[in-house]
Design brief:
Elements lengths: L4 H10 L4 E5 L9 H12 L5 E4 L4 H11 L6 E4 L2 E4 L1 H10 L1 H12 L1
Parallel strand pairs: 1-2
Antiparallel strand pairs: 1-3, 3-4
Helix pairs in contact: 1-3, 2-4
Length: 109
């Protein structure tokens, strides 16, 4: 079986930290409203996150949607598992579940 270097890079990014956010821009300078709102929700629950700016990495931007089977950005991964995009993250934030997921992920790290 041949390995796919870009999928290997994506997997390495996803597993590099308990909380990984693939986004447009950076937490300091988000380049879209969805990324901005996702970062705000994560910061509000004290998440220590690793972010990947997909605008600076066209290979990841092109291949992550196929890898994760999720078409849009941002994409939030916790403990290597796709949580979802902006809408799901905000729903989890409003229900209180995001805080618990982040706390558990950071405790386990």
């Amino acid at each position: 079986m041949s390995t796919n270097p870009i999928n290997d890079r994506i997997k390495a990014e996803i597993t590099s930290a308990p909380i990984v956010l693939f986004m447009k821009g950076t937490p300091q300078f988000p380049m879209c409203g969805f990324s901005s709102r996702t970062v705000q929700a994560l910061k509000a629950v004290g998440a220590q996150m690793h972010t990947v700016n997909v605008l600076e990495d066209p290979e990841i931007r092109a291949n992550l949607p196929r890898y994760s089977d999720w078409p849009t950005f941002p994409q939030l991964f916790i403990n290597g598992e796709l949580i979802g995009g902006c809408d799901i993250t905000l729903e989890l934030f409003e229900s209180g579940d995001l805080a618990a997921m982040v706390a558990d992920a950071q405790k386990a790290a």
